[in-house]
Write a structure and sequence with these properties.
Rossmann fold, Dihydrodipicolinate Reductase, domain 2, 2 domains, 10 helices, 33% helix, 6-stranded parallel beta sheet, Gfo/Idh/MocA_oxidrdct_glycsds, Dehydrogenase
Amino acid sequence: MIRIGIIGCGGIANAHVLAYLQHSERVKIQALADVYVDAAEGLRRRFKLEAQVHHSYEELLKREDVDAVDIMLPHHLHWKAVMDAIMAGKHVLVEKPMCVTPAEADAVVDAVKAAKTKLLVGHNQVFSPAVREAKRMIEEGYVGKLFSVRTQDCFKGRIGGWRLSKEKIGGGELIDTGYHPMYLLSYLSASKVSSVYAVTGKFFNLEMEGEDTAMVLVNFADGSLGSVNTSWAYELPPGDKRFAVAGEKGLLYGDLLVLGYKVPGMGEARREWPTVRDPYTDTFIYEISHFLDVVEGRSEPIQGPEEGRSVVRLVTAAYRSVAEKRAVGLDEV
């Protein structure tokens, strides 16, 4: 039985706790930590958890009866909490982003290499059945040589709290919801990113210090292209896809639980997966299952510190592109 400590008991913690409860035969939530004790107490009551509440995560990390921690703090606090957890000998699942700067990411990679613990970055959409199947089909040549990868994640919603602060969020929408299509782009592509050109805007959440909308164009080292569309100011048109991959043999496109495949001149092949709870929560159920496999030594992290660093560099290059109004190479960040 793996004993988990939850660090940060805000909104996203609800999805994580629901996922842990789906694997109750393998894991127990042992402790909760939040500077706002009422948030931790509320989480404990809501899910009837037999877990001790701590006012600080430092107290939680001292516990010998905690094997691993799940870090869900505001972005600017991720790096220190991750480093402290590694130094305390705990396995780590950290919500995206792993941290907010390439220098922080380098330090995390080095710390994990030196430690005996494992780290998984919470790129939850990678664990959806449709994305995993698309990755398999790409690797097995179903679309042939890749021409382009397009990813997107958009909704219209009011943003508040720490996300209004450019310093605390690490920028704006792009390093929050926009982080999802950024890591999906990296995951589905067959090549390393060579350069990035990005533009941002603020249309609906005018009180934010950062952007609420971003578009990113990517050149990959093998000559293929990528694009990201992400926003808190508008929804996607009905039927639009979360991801689409075009290659010399055909197309792959879909969402979390639906995947389409089309070869030129032929009809569409389509596959759908059943839900456990709902498409959103299911990504966390699959992610937590993988994290438990990692902690138990059954698997290496699919999205570990190296993958986390790659996406941090990609986002950093995008922000630099916006600031300097030019394409920025990944070797510049």
